[in-house]
Amino acid sequence: MNSSLAVRLLHQCSVATLATLSCKHPGFPYASTVQYACDPEHRVIFMASALAEHTKNLQADPRVSVCLITPGDGGQTAARMTLLGMAERFEPDAALTERYLRYQPEARDWQSLDFMFFRIQPHRLRVIAGPGQMGWLDAEQWQALPVIPLAEELDLLSGAAITLPDGVHLLGVDAFGIDYRRYGHLRRHGWDTPGGDLPELQQRLLTTLPSLS
Q1: Strand 185-190's sheet: what is its strand order?
Q2: CA dihedral sign of residues 20, 48, 88, 101
Q3: 180: which strand partners?
Q4: Distance between terminal CA atoms of the chain?
Q5: What is the model's pLDDT at position 164?
Q6: Cα–chain center distance at 40
Q7: pLDDT at 160 over 60
Q8: pLDDT in tens, 65-83
Q9: How far apart are CA 86 and CA 89, in angstroms?
């Protein structure tokens, strides 16, 4: 299964269904929703309140499952993905925190409350592109995906700002495409092939940004 579809789904969505193992009802999965973004290694990161049921569950047992489906789509033809992984609490540095807040700006208000950051380390991913088009991706395949360091991403974002169309706000750049908001709506522009070094990505941005809609 091609990893590009999994990356695209992760970046097209901003809310995921999160299944944890219930403490209150042992043996039962507990499904809830979380607002998330991705770190440079394409891992899901999210903030959760200490009072949330899923927070108590994953602190007792870190095994989780995340489900995503193409926004606005449904039925058997929709692209979708289930990610199995281990959730871990962590403290992001300032650059990663700002990246998360670009994607989830309302989370700024959560920082003064009892919210904490979690990151999901992928174990396996089940990707379904449509009827008869499905497969698994292993953690090793995910870890081998190209990564853009945060410092390079910030260089790309700051250098591209002057060419943005009206209503467009850049959120992030990765080797597979661009995340942005246009008049408040989350959008994703993917590239046909993953990008390479910084100069190549800069050229792709210069070519792509004027056409974003």
Answers
A1: 168-174, 177-182, 185-190
A2: positive
A3: 170, 187
A4: 29
A5: 83
A6: 9
A7: no
A8: 999 998 876 677 788 999 9
A9: 10
From CA 44, how far away is CA 19, in angstroms rounded? Answer: 14
- The pTM assigned to this predicted structure is 0.92
pLDDT of residue 36: 97
Helical spans, DSSP H, in the chain: 3-12, 53-60, 94-103, 139-143, 150-160, 198-208
For the chain, give the mean pLDDT.
Answer: 92
CA 3 to chain centre: 14
Strand ranges in the chain using DSSP code E only, listed in sequence order: 15-21, 29-38, 44-49, 63-69, 80-89, 115-130, 133-138, 168-174, 177-182, 185-190
Q: Where are the alpha helices (DSSP H) in 13-80?
A: 53-60
Report the alpha-carbon distance of residue 27 to residue 174 in Å, rounded.
38
Find out whether 86 and 121 touch, Cβ atoms under 8 Å: yes
